[in-house]
Fold these 4 entries.
Entry 1:
Amino acid sequence: MTSVSAVLFAKDLQRVSDFYVEALGLQRSAADDHHVALDCRGFSLIVHQIPQALIHESEPLFPRRDEAALRLMFPVNDITTARQRAATYGGHIDATPPAWAAANANAFLGHDPEGNVFKIVHAS
């Protein structure tokens, strides 16, 4: 049986996959030169290297993509630690919940080093 998965295309495969492992606690389950498979409680996030021929080094760094059509949600054991590690690994997790969230939701938005927005919640 195949698990649920998503593919995230990355300009810098190693940096983006390291971010999800180190900041959000996902586990590497497989890797090669073009892909890194990460596991989060049975969900697989496949980070896929964008072919070098399609990358233009003159393009600016990725802005935060708040208007993306898809936003993944990850449970973390410690929100404060995740926030600190996200900053260390080139991303960010907001200090306050989004305006639309309930005050006690304990949910925060963040983005990875390439601007892909995600939501974290405290694992229970």
Entry 2:
Amino acid sequence: MNIVFNSPQMYIIDYPANNAVEIFDKRSWRLGLIRGPLAERFRRELDIFIDDGADEDKFDDLMEAYDVLLIPQGAMH
């Protein structure tokens, strides 16, 4: 388990052994777990975002593509 991003808005944890990434949106208390090729794609896009200087607008653009995968925290039972 690796914490790869922690900001006031978002918390992202990478689980390389499981080829999975967990995304937690602190603003809306929604989270999601992505696996396989989608997790690999997200890792690449997050690396590009970080390498480009971690601009907040670019981060919102990045997360917009994954927003549909996040569900309210209490709904994950």
Entry 3:
Amino acid sequence: MASPSLPLTPSRPVAPTILVVEDSDVVRTLAARMLVEQGYAVITAIDGVEAIEVLERASIGVVVTDLRMPRMDGRELARQVAARWPGVQMIFMTGHPSADLTDGLPGPLLMKPFARDDLAVAVRTRLTAFTE
């Protein structure tokens, strides 16, 4: 007698992949590790140029990006993401809290160093916007 087949759906919905964009190896690795520990799939990029390459080939739900980076900063990355992938949500991080840098960002700002819980809450909040 054959056993009944079980559904192949996961017990909880699979969250979209998170892209962490940061030029500092230490901060990028730490942020990615924090998110992986929360159960998210994570891809990393060293700057906005590499992030665009990732976005062109992967389905990303949230981009967590530094504001100051070489080649393409976080603000320019956000402009390009909004134009090409309007459903992708943005979270920004910085260690340089100047008003000219942080004014009018299209997403929350985390000040470095940030706590794991602060990052987790920001991502959960943006994922809610992504899925609505």
Entry 4:
Amino acid sequence: MNVANTKKEIADLIVHESKRVGSPITTKDFEIFHQPLNHFSPALPEGKMAVYTFVFNDVFLKVGQANQRSKARYQSHHYHIRSGRSTLANSLIKDSAMSSIVNEDNVTDWVRNNCERFDVLIDAKLGKITLNFIEGLLQYKYQPKYEG
């Protein structure tokens, strides 16, 4: 996946569609943060909320959101099977197509080593409606394999 092209595609989608509905979001309101293969996610910065994605072999597996009070959801929940029901780790474990490569013992490392992330870091002052809007745009555009 071409990092620069994907970051531009996401930014253009947000700017264009928010303008189209009459509530413009500019590139000053957000940044696209890429986490490459073999990543260790940093903490969600203060005053930010995020729409995060997990991508494996150019396929979006998960698109989700974390507000400024759900920092663990952004940084660590999706890497572990006991962090909640709708985590990427749990989705991978339940997927019979992935059972030959992912299991409870290796899922955390597998996600870190095989998935890259494109995260939209948004100023928290823009609020929950903006967070929902951007998450919805990315879910609609990329049709992630695992949702719910």
